[in-house]
Automatic annotation (TrEMBL):
Protein name: FAD-binding domain-containing protein
Pfam families: FAD_binding_3
Record-annotated FAD-binding domain positions: 21-349
Coiled-coil stretches noted in the UniProt entry, renumbered to this chain: none
Tagged with keyword Oxidoreductase: yes
Key words of the record: FAD, Flavoprotein, Oxidoreductase
InterPro entries recorded: FAD-bd (IPR002938), FAD/NAD-bd_sf (IPR036188), RIFMO-like (IPR050641)
Keyword Ribosomal protein assigned: no
Entry's Gene Ontology molecular function annotations: FAD binding; oxidoreductase activity, acting on paired donors, with incorporation or reduction of molecular oxygen, NAD(P)H as one donor, and incorporation of one atom of oxygen
Cofactor entry: FAD
Length: 522
């Protein structure tokens, strides 16, 4: 089987995927790890430049860990403190933090956001794709497509030569300006604010700008641009975004806001936009799916754009793979819209509130608001989620983008980590963690039981399952991290099925009921 992924459009053969930047590359990597070969096309002749949205939230760091991409956490920088100055002066107003402080814990190993520019992130992901002999086809563009009950015929153009490519599925992650969503006729309702932004990467030196302590709300030091590199943000309702067209005007505008001598070197990359708050009415039409900015856009405040797109790609990839392999009915793909519409709707409300705060106060920090960490997002109301320990309550708020509550855990929530686990089989004495066993190409069945004998019935029920898509582990009493994180009492038996959806059940019959919602023939 093959799939194709693009910076602008990614195509799966027999499934197909379209992407711009990390969202599409994550979708492609998820598919490849699920045994679906991927083809990647990119309209532009060269890789994208620019830091763009550099914030990688803790939940996204977890997903990159599951994808075996540790470089994102290793290369990412901690958020520097923020120093606010009075307008057009170097008089300090206050020092603060961009993000709330969270102590690391055994259940949350990735406890703080990291910063990594998208140009570097793209390169990291491309290297992982190349391990599967999957390379980005640059200068290749999607011109049109038609879908039927059997599949999709997509017309691709390279050097103005048109070729038709046949595929079963397509994922559109080509950004807000892409054509695929428009061809599908999906609505993109919302609002455009007067607030304008010009952002980019620049090289400069100035005596007042301390790369060690931190700067103003508009400049962030980043060595990815150069030893004198900065990512800048200019924003304001009266900002003339045409300054983005000329390097000199960028320099003049920044100099007018900082009363000190600045030696400008180079504007490496520049972009301009207005604050758009929009989302689609559904995340797929037939065999074509949308993800990332192709499905939802918002202001850059809150740092959720790239991260929510990564969640889209990860969740959709394994579902398409199961359907493409004939292991699941295509009705499974309808849960993508079902799960992500409430998540994105609440995300837009949150980022808009942060934008309003920024406009009203000039304060871009989000101290005290842990929601952007994305550790509380969930799909509890998904039709394939099964929870035998929680009683449904009519009229209960959806709260799909909630705050992490470590004292409460339901099916559809983020699964916590637990370290200090010991293999009990001969020759497997090394310690391990739960996170090291969670991967996007199989469901993990965790049986927490007082003794091996009490897990026998569950393991027996899984004997006939395809080991490539369902794996299991029995957790016996030890250091207690798992029991604490998963809220299990010492004498209790609880069974967890881990994927981006999931189940919490009592016994083998519960496991069968959950998998019958996903796999054919179970």
């Amino acid at each position: 089987m093959s799939i194709s992924t693009v910076r602008l459009y990614e195509f799966l053969h027999p499934s197909s995927c379209a992407s711009r930047g990390p969202v599409g590359l994550v979708a492609a990597l998820t598919l490849l790890q699920n045994g679906i070969a991927v083809r990647i096309i990119d309209k532009d002749p060269n890789p994208r430049m620019g830091q763009r949205g550099p914030v990688i939230c803790p939940r996204s760091l977890e997903l990159f860990n599951f994808l075996n991409v540790p470089e994102v956490n290793d290369l990412g920088k901690l958020n520097p403190p923020v120093r606010l100055y009075k307008p057009v002066t170097l008089e300090i107003m206050n020092d603060s933090s961009m993000v709330p402080h969270m102590e690391p814990s055994s259940a949350i190993p990735f406890h703080t956001p990291k910063l990594i520019g998208q140009q570097l992130l793209d390169a990291v992901l491309r290297r992982h794709l190349e391990k599967f002999s999957c390379f980005v086809e640059t200068g290749t563009e999607l011109r049109s497509f038609e879908q039927s009950d059997e599949g999709i015929a997509a017309v691709l153009a390279k050097n103005e030569i048109l070729k038709t490519f046949y595929t079963k599925w397509m994922i559109d992650a080509d950004g807000a300006e892409g054509v695929m969503r428009k061809q599908l006729g999906l609505t993109f309702l919302g609002e455009t604010r007067d607030m304008a932004f010009v952002t980019g990467d620049i090289r400069l030196t100035a005596a007042c700008l301390d790369r060690e302590v931190d700067l103003s709300v508009s400049l962030r030091p980043t060595d990815e641009v150069g030893e004198d590199g900065w990512q800048f943000y200019l924003m304001g309702s009266n900002l003339d975004i045409s300054i983005a067209q000329k390097e000199e005007r960028i320099f003049e505008t920044i100099a007018s806001l900082i009363p000190t001598e600045i030696a400008f070197k180079k504007a490496v990359w520049v972009n301009k936009f207005r604050a758009n708050i929009r989302m689609v009415n559904k995340f797929n039409d037939g065999r074509v799916f949308v993800a990332g900015d192709a499905a939802h856009v918002h202001s850059p405040t809150g740092g959720q754009g790239l991260n929510s797109g990564i969640q889209d790609a990860f969740a959709l990839g394994w579902k398409i793979a199961l359907v493409a392999r004939g292991l699941a009915d295509k009705s499974l793909l309808e849960t993508y819209t079902e799960e992500h519409l409430p998540i994105i709707s609440e995300m837009l409300e949150m980022t808009t509130a942060i934008l309003n705060q920024t406009v009203g106060t000039g304060n871009i920090t989000s101290r005290g608001n842990p929601k952007p960490f994305m550790l509380g997002i969930n799909c509890r109301l998904s039709s394939i989620v099964l929870d035998e320990f929680t009683t449904p309550v009519d009229g209960r708020p959806i709260n799909a983008y909630g705050v992490l509550d470590e004292g409460h855990l339901e099916a559809g929530d983020r699964a916590p980590d637990a370290p200090g686990l010991l293999h009990i089989r001969p020759g497997e004495s090394d310690q391990t963690t739960l996170f090291s066993h969670y991967r996007p190409w199989y469901h993990t069945v965790i049986v927490i039981a007082p003794s091996p004998a009490e897990a026998t019935s569950v393991l027996g029920a899984l004997e006939s399952c395809d080991k490539s898509v369902i794996r299991s582990a029995v957790i016996l009493p030890s250091g207690g991290h798992t029991y604490s994180a998963y809220l299990v009492e010492a004498s209790q038996i609880k069974i967890f099925v881990i994927m981006s959806d999931g189940a919490i059940v009592h016994d083998a019959e519960g496991v069968k009921r959950y998998f019958s919602k996903i796999f054919v023939g179970m």
